[in-house]
Amino acid sequence: MAGAPAGRPFPWRRFLAGVAALAGGAAACALLVGGLVVLFVRLSWPHTEALGNPAFGINFSCNYAEYLLLEDAATGNGHVPDDRPGRARWCAGTLGELLEGLGARHVRLSVEWSQVEPRQGEFDWTLIDALLSEAEEHGARVLLTVGLKAQRHPEYYIPGWVLERASVAYGDEVSSDPFVRERALVMIEAAVAHFSQSGAIDAWGADNEPYVPSLRASNWSLSREFVQKEVAAIRANDPLGRPVSINHGQHFVFDRRWKHALADADVLAQSLYPWRNYDIPGRTLVVPILEIGPLAPNYSYQARLAREQGRNFWITEMQAEPWVDGDIRLVSPERPSANLTEANFRKNIDYARRVGADRIYLWGAEWWLYQRVRYGDARWWNLGRAAIEGSGNAPPAAQMR
Known about the structure:
This protein has helices at 12-42, 45-48, 62-69, 87-102, 113-116, 126-137, 160-163, 178-195, 224-237, 258-264, 299-308, 342-355, 365-375, 379-389, 396-399; strands at residues 55-59, 106-110, 141-146, 201-206, 244-248, 267-272, 275-280, 283-288, 312-319, 359-363. It has two domains: 18-48; 53-399, Glycosidases (TIM Barrel, Alpha-Beta Barrel). Helix 3 (62-69) packs parallel to helix 13 (365-375). The strands form two sheets. The chain has an eight-stranded parallel β-barrel with strand order 1-2-3-4-5-6-9-10, surrounded by seven helices. The radius of gyration is 25 Å and the shape is globular. It contains 15 helices and ten strands. The longest helix is centred in the first third of the chain and has 31 residues, at 12-42. Helix 12 links the parallel strand 9 (312-319) and strand 10. The N and C termini lie far apart (84 Å). With 401 residues, it is an alpha/beta fold.
């Protein structure tokens, strides 16, 4: 018999004892590793930082509000043209409904280049003027973002007349094209010079997540050097010297590009989406990204570092609507999304209060209104309003350093 001398039985007892010892050792190692993982998570900032009292506000996109409230409810997935009569009035009225109903006193708006300069050198400020007037009427203060990227799909709002003369391909740093660069800076200077007259604005944003390649728009991105020029253009054209923010969308701790924003702006801002979808064969998992211990971005550290350097730290997009891969209009009480439950919404508010930010702009107010209007579901509206009403909405001057 192979493995044992002839006439001697196989030492099963010793063999089984060895197997048991190996299994016990493996189990002990697994318990040790598991315990360390739990320890790292429990000692991370979402579990150790004290609750703060930031001011909660909202983001607002007229395009998104139309997509939800008009293109679906009114015309059955039809298209609502941007040049229709009364558009600015409708958009401003919808913003006013949100500000009034939610009690929000901070709102983030974006200037869409293709909207404000439909033809070279011809500027149309009608829509943003109406939104700023509405915000001022409701006593709200505006963070106004200017640049090539803006909130919501398709992110890059580069006019067709620019793209016709530009030479940009998939994956390019679109700001490297001389014509795009030149015309974008002309638009930014004109926009800031015009909107600086509004008393509603208390801060500017130099583009929207400029360092993050946009999968919605040919994977384009912007260079740090160009964003620095945007910041300089904003400062040069605002006689009141209001703060300039740069926001980033950091997914994991290894991404250090937020340091560019900290160095180049008055406000370091982040987009915070704690619940991410990851696909595995046959299934989509919802991963709590802030519960992965040392791999998660340490926003609390960033907030402390910003304060030490005399700057502010804000969350300009705080997830408060589901992150879906399909049509978000189909999410309803009967077809809920696993990505954002009521419990997750409350957890996000808890995360937001522990970050150490001075301001939090909630992402999804238009969707809360849509759920209430389209499906009669006011849960999300009420959750958002409770967060905003219970936050540190001190007079804006007291919020700024």
